[in-house]
Amino acid sequence: AGEEVVQIRLGDKCYPVCKRKLIEQSDYFRALYRSGMREAGQGQEEQLLRGGLSALGLELVLDFINTSCLARLEQEEGGEEEPPLLEELVEAASYLQVTPLLRLLLSQVRLGNCFELHRLAQVYGLQDLHDACLDFMAAHYHQVLRRPDARPHLLLPPALQQQLRERRMRGTATLVLLGDFMGACPPGLPAGCHPAGDAPWAMLRYDEEAQRWLPLANNLPADLVSVRGYGSATLDNYLFIVGGYRITSQEISAAHCYNPCLNEWSQLASMNQKRSNFKLLAVSGKLYAIGGQSLSNVECYNPENDWWNFVASMPNPLAEFSACECKGKIYVIGGYTARGRNMSILQYCPTSDSWTNLELCDVHVRKQQMLSVEETIYLVGGCILDLGPSHRSSPSEDVLTVQSYNIATKEWLYLNENSSKSGLNLTCTLHNDGVYILSRNITLSSSLEQRLFLKYNIFTDTWETLGRFPAFGQNILICSMYLPDGRKV
């Protein structure tokens, strides 16, 4: 026996549809046929629809009911017709309560339709679709910022941008390593235990409960293997690797970023200036590439347009300096000018695009790492020379020190030192309640004193040894990122 067919009438048009499929897919029609209402009586082969539905919306929904797919929508994807089609579709699917179709839309969110689907989800109270759109836009946040429809139609207001940034950080704050790890397994450990596996250039993540490093498999670009002296920064939970030089000594301007929400790398617009041994900082939603080998110029990267442009240059080129962001401004300390030691603290204000010589200091530092928390800048490691009247000691490259500078009070504090550790060749990051410090180069010939994996607690001013790092490697970078929960490795 053939399937019973019902005629759906809308205005002067009739649409034949299988009654069984109609009841299976539409809560509206299921309730209608089970209610005992006159419209659903025996022998009633025609159903009249009212409520202002459009013919196009009804056709799209009935196509889905008959085929269980959105073929027409997929054909139109990327075209000019997509937003109108979506509006008609969602309106009809909501009115007729076609839950399987609304559920299918959760997997149809794309860069081209995420704004429109987000708006429609709000209009029709579709919470699951609303959340799916937010998840998609958060995972592709910088790509979403670049959409031409993001600004003219005000579809991405500041409040929504902030919501998406927060959504990108819903996972677990995790220490992540990027480096050129050697294939040799450390002595005393079983073969095949090397955390980087077969890939010499890899990423690792730290399991704090197990206190061990695990592989973080992804599509890390092979051409980053030979790059040294690059700039790195995290912005909106993206990791940026920019510039540097290849082992052949050729400086580069290329830029890449890692998106932990998608666990993938992508290439970005290159800087205008090739540079290495510079500082890359995230400030107020933008990146700043500061200085470099014999360079004083500064470039700013805006993720909204994936482009770099020059801003105000530093007063002089600097070597072996460091810099960090603090309270929306950039602070540069230490290093050398062409004429000698740089004793000035330089401040850059992005709003006015200007540099200020903030003050002179008695301590000269070079090759240090810098981080900030609230109004305090922490200087980690480096080679320190106290030139003040009550100078403390001669410079030592073998002592790991932590100093702080308060930008409000301009007060320096010599916080702590670890006399058994070297203050050079470090990579460090802020993570939870402390500064995590790791040797940038870890070799077979390193002594136990030189091989670092430490935590400095900024609240208690104490050191904690986190044990020996179980891999050998070069050019290592440590950073803290939010990885999605349940990440498989």
Automatic annotation (TrEMBL):
Under SUPFAM superfamilies, the record lists:
Kelch motif, POZ domain
Q: CDD domains from the xrefs?
A: BACK_KLHL42_KLHDC5
Q: Which GO terms describe its biological process?
A: cell division
Query: One GO CC annotation, please?
Result: spindle
Q: Which domain of life is it from?
A: Eukaryota
Q: Keywords on this record?
A: Cell cycle, Cell division, Cytoplasm, Cytoskeleton, Kelch repeat, Mitosis, Repeat, Ubl conjugation pathway
Gene3D superfamilies in the record: Kelch-type beta propeller (2.120.10.80), Potassium Channel Kv1.1, Chain A (3.30.710.10)
Record SMART domains: Kelch (SM00612)
Q: Copy the pathway line from the protein's UniProt record.
A: Protein modification; protein ubiquitination
Q: Where does this one sit in the cell? A: Cytoplasm, Cytoskeleton, Spindle
Q: How does it assemble?
A: Component of the BCR(KLHL42) E3 ubiquitin ligase complex, at least composed of CUL3 and KLHL42. Interacts (via the BTB domain) with CUL3. Interacts (via the kelch domains) with KATNA1.
Its function, per the record, reads: Substrate-specific adapter of a BCR (BTB-CUL3-RBX1) E3 ubiquitin-protein ligase complex required for mitotic progression and cytokinesis. The BCR(KLHL42) E3 ubiquitin ligase complex mediates the ubiquitination and subsequent degradation of KATNA1. Involved in microtubule dynamics throughout mitosis.
Q: What is this protein called?
A: Kelch-like protein 42
Top-down, what is the taxonomic lineage of the species of origin? Eukaryota, Metazoa, Chordata, Craniata, Vertebrata
